[in-house]
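Can anyone check this?
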Amino acid sequence: MHQSVVPPRPRSAFRIVVLATVLVSVAALAFTTLGAPSEATGRHRPFPLDLERASIPQIREALVARRITSEELVEAYLERIRTLNTNGPGLNAVRVVTRDAVAQAKQADQDRRKGRARGPMHGIPVLIKDNIDLKGLPTTAGALALENSYPAKDAFLVTRLKAAGAIILGKTNLTEFANFTTNGMPSGYSGLGGQVLNPYDVSQTPSGSSSGSGSAAAAALATVTIGTETSGSILSPSAANSLVGVKPTVGLVSRTGVVPIAASQDTAGPMTRTVYDAAALLTALTGIDPEDPITDTSSGVVGTDYTRALSSTALQGKRIGVASTPTGNQGVLFTEALDVLRAQGATVVPVTVNTGGLPPSILTYEFKRDLNAYLARLPRSAPMDTLDDVVRYNLVHVDEGTIKFGQTQLVASNDVDLTDPAAKAEYETNRDTGIAGARERIDSVLTAENLDAIVFVGSGSAGIGARAQYPSVAVPIGYDPANGRPVGMSFLGTAYTEAQLLALAYDYEQASLKWRPPSQVNPSLFRCADFGDRDTSCAP
């Protein structure tokens, strides 16, 4: 065994390495300017795409037509990261960029020229959450204790992205340990990464643990991003950042190489600005992983191209249950969204889904077991072996900001002993009855009313869907007229109905056309960003 707690390299040195990484990546852009928040610029000419609004089909068309290259696309995104993430508004959504992003782009361009494009994701820049393994960069989960924790290889989902030709642009910040460090920690905060901001309203939470992925996707710091969810951490930041978010069925996307909370509920999924982009990204993520046996349950849908399920008539003749009754401005927007569903031919049925009274959460039981299993996969040089090492490291380094808000949940899980027969029996009962109970509550409503899906305002499907291991798709439905804050709704279905849920969301999206970019909803945040036409009244 290697030493349990290895002192990390000095923080100042690490910052220099990260800064150098970013500077090398953007060195070619030293004399580049951006025309406007939605108009990134290449090295030699105005960039021909509005990146804030461009989705995969528009980008792909420009790549195929050779109006842009993937290299120019990566450079434009890196400049947006410099302008909006690191400087300017300082969204702090991106923690680090990959050293070889431009090299990946050049290879994608070369493959395309040789007729070797591998589908919609080929040459498309993706940001992944920093609890997902990417060889060559540490996987930190936002924790100082894991600042120098380098995996031996890519997560399985990353290998799938690379096989689809995607460019891994970098990693996003997150709520530390996916919001399982303590109670009361602000969403988007971590001891290593600091605080992520919501580009639609920096006074409001970016929400969920996938806050960096949410903020980065909203601000177009990459074409698409990846988040992870245990209970709400894709759906909630998607609603807060006006995104399409897909929380897949547990088993559709491999969990190998992802820092866990609880295997019973963990999954990664897309966070994007359009439903098509989410479908294209989900298509690239899926596959059966020999190291994650639960992916065997997805054998019936392996190879599905989710973009082919999308239809502007998907709602015609469908029956949609409505499980939310919001009030105020949120209620007005939700009512308008239901009107769109009806106008597209759906029958809307009020239903009640009992989301309370389930057995106690199993997260505290599973976190220690699953984190220790993840850490055991790392190279011998990794700084942490167990959750106990993390807890002790945090106490020793408290003056460095390891546990500004405490570590109550880490400690509670560390105290769990699943070798104790009574504790093990209690855990297994809560796990099994929780999954079965949540599924019965959803399935019984779907069956009794002959429904195709159930909609909730915001991320209301998150809790019950997480316990059931069922999929949800979140989609924007507008902005509160009182403050411009985004409002969304989520479609919930039974296991492995992602294709249908995406189709329903796509039909709604195309009919409603509600999405707006953050620079339009919250222009004051972007007014003094250094885009070339910067207001002369702005501070230097």
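Reply from J.R.: I decoded it. The chain has 17 helices and 13 strands.
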